[in-house]
Design brief:
By secondary structure, the chain is an alpha+beta fold. It contains 13 helices and nine strands. The strands form three sheets. Strands 1-2-4-3 form a four-stranded antiparallel sheet, with helices on both faces. A three-stranded antiparallel sheet has the order 7-8-9, with no helix packed on it. The protein has a two-stranded parallel ribbon with strand order 5-6. This is ZSWIM1/3 RNaseH-like domain-containing protein.
């Protein structure tokens, strides 16, 4: 407990000193965009594999987007696939079942063109983006539209906490007479809840709350209703609240008054500190559960995955190696395995890279 507190205190002091040095450098007469270029140029030269991009408005000379990834952020992703700047972050599920950042992006506004560019830069730096199968967001339509366009193979899920919160607000606004009962129904998150809601509203299909529910939530219920996403590899994640928790910790250090170069330097320092702590925990003896299995390959794999991901793979492994398995494997093509069922003649290709 004491060591953790001291480490955090030292880190915060280092961050404050860094920002003070940046503030003193402002007298050099450089614009925010120029200082952002300087910060990210230094960042890219610190370690091989670090990458960054800054997009500047040619008319106003304002930095519109600033994106950076450390080399370790790229490896983590591959391993686990107005006036103020907005922080747009990508997070993955790590070996400990927690969240790790794999890209930070500062955007001038959350317009689709900016968000689209952020995702395009992510794809440029991470060829394994094609393996993304699940993306969870809140109900920000512009974000969902960009992700659907850029990651067409990924199943989009809605954070259930955001769904319930929105529905509670609408129940209070549109059905104040039965708001308590309506709020309770919002927690059901299954098909019967729609019928129960209609009964509560006296069977009035023209009621504003019922129409709101149908137009905003019923049409995309496969994104948030629990029983409709049982076959999706979401690793038991039903909310993105942990991202909000991580954001709260960042706000302890980042202030609204910081300029873009100060924001970037602070974020880089935060990221480097977080990566150091992750590696310490990763290599600590006993930090990952030793899963004893009859198959040595599966036991070794168990050290590299979270318990949720391992449970999924263990079931698939048992099916693939069990007595009922009926297929042949062709490894003639490098990086590719072709599985063929002699019984049906159907084939399935697996990327083994």
């Amino acid at each position: 407990m004491v060591c953790l507190y001291q480490a955090k205190k030292t880190f915060c002091e280092m961050s404050r000193n860094m920002v003070q040095r940046l503030k003193s450098a402002e007298k050099a007469g450089l614009s925010d965009a120029q200082r952002a270029f300087a910060v990210l140029d230094e960042f890219c030269h610190e370690h091989d594999g670090n990458s960054a991009q800054v997009l500047v408005d040619s008319i106003t000379n304002t930095a519109r987007i600033a994106v950076f990834q450390t080399a370790r952020m790229q490896r983590l992703f591959k391993a686990f696939p107005e006036d103020r700047y907005k922080l747009f972050r990508f997070v993955v599920h790590d070996v400990f079942g927690k969240r790790q950042y794999v890209q930070h992006a500062l955007v001038e506004t959350e317009h689709m063109v900016n968000l689209r560019k952020v995702v395009e830069i992510f794809k440029e730096n991470n060829p394994d983006w094609i393996k993304i199968r699940v993306a969870m967001t809140d109900k920000a339509v512009h974000e969902k539209g960009v992700l659907k366009e850029q990651w067409p193979e990924a199943r989009q899920l809605l954070c259930q906490w955001h769904v319930i919160t929105w529905l509670k607000k609408q129940a209070t606004r549109l059905a104040p007479a039965v708001k308590k009962e309506a709020k309770s129904l919002m927690r059901l998150l299954y098909e019967d809840g729609k019928g129960a809601l209609l009964d509560l509203l006296g069977g009035d299909k023209a009621h504003e709350l019922y129409k709101f529910f149908l137009s905003n939530w019923d049409a995309n219920r496969e994104e948030w209703v629990s029983y409709l996403r049982g076959n999706v590899p979401h690793l038991t994640n039903n909310t993105n609240n942990r991202i909000e928790s991580k954001w709260g910790k960042i706000k302890d250090v980042i202030k609204d008054s910081l300029s873009i170069d100060q924001l970037l330097s602070t974020l880089i320092t935060l990221q480097e500190y977080g990566e150091e702590q992750y590696m310490v925990e990763y290599h600590r003896i006993g930090s990952r559960p030793a899963r004893i299995d009859e198959d040595p390959e599966l036991s070794l794999l168990g050290l590299q995955l979270s318990s949720f991901a391992f449970d999924l793979i263990e079931k698939q492994f048992g099916l693939a190696t069990g007595a009922g398995a009926d297929y042949t494997v062709d490894l003639a093509v490098p990086g590719q395995a072709t599985l063929t069922s002699p019984r049906t003649g159907e084939s399935y290709q697996v990327n083994t890279r």
